[in-house]
């Protein structure tokens, strides 16, 4: 596990940097919708892998919750985008999220047992913190459409709950 921490930390630093500095211009609503969809899709992909590979039943249950919850947010975002005739637009941030998510899944595929569980949970902590920071510092402040902004505000507590849940899981795993 100690060898994995530097790689996890480096990946999270890159993700944080990309969210904060990928584009110096404020994202428009179409780009914000694209970021929302990408962020949720990344966590769905990792969750699906963890559903099948996690050893610890609590980690497996957490992964199932990530797939369900983030899938639900993507459904809400898609319905809202359709209602607003807003096509989610790719941006440097959404592309970076997708690339980082693919790299994470690829790395996780090479792990088994407790190493997988620990790496998955560690990444979920960093990822949800990064997403919360993006929500607070980029998405909410720059969303122009009130309904889009309200959706982001509405899902923020769930993202924070996911972060707290992952932290509790990490504490449980460290006791084993």
Automatic annotation (TrEMBL):
It comes from the Bacteria. The keyword Signal applies. It holds the Pfam family DUF4142. Residues 28-169 form the DUF4142 domain. Keywords: Signal. InterPro entries: DUF4142, Ferritin-like. Residues 1-22 form the signal peptide. This is DUF4142 domain-containing protein. It comes from Noviherbaspirillum pedocola. The lineage of its organism: Bacteria, Pseudomonadati, Pseudomonadota, Betaproteobacteria, Burkholderiales.
């Amino acid at each position: 596990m100690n060898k994995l921490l530097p790689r996890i930390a480096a990946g999270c630093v890159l993700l944080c940097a990309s969210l904060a500095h990928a584009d110096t211009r404020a994202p428009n609503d179409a780009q914000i919708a694209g970021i929302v969809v990408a962020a949720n899709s990344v966590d769905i992909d990792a969750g699906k892998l963890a559903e099948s590979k996690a050893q610890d039943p609590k980690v497996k249950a957490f992964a199932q919750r990530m797939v369900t919850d983030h899938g639900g947010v993507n459904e809400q975002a898609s319905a809202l985008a359709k209602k607003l005739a807003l096509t989610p637009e790719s941006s440097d941030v959404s592309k970076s999220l997708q690339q980082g998510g693919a790299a994470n899944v690829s790395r996780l595929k090479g792990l088994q047992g407790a190493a997988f569980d620990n790496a998955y949970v560690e990444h979920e902590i960093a990822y949800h913190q990064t997403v919360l920071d993006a929500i607070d510092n980029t998405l909410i402040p720059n969303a122009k459409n009130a309904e889009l902004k309200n959706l982001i505000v509405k899902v923020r507590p769930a993202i924070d709950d996911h972060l707290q849940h992952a932290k509790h899981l990490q504490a449980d795993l460290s006791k084993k």
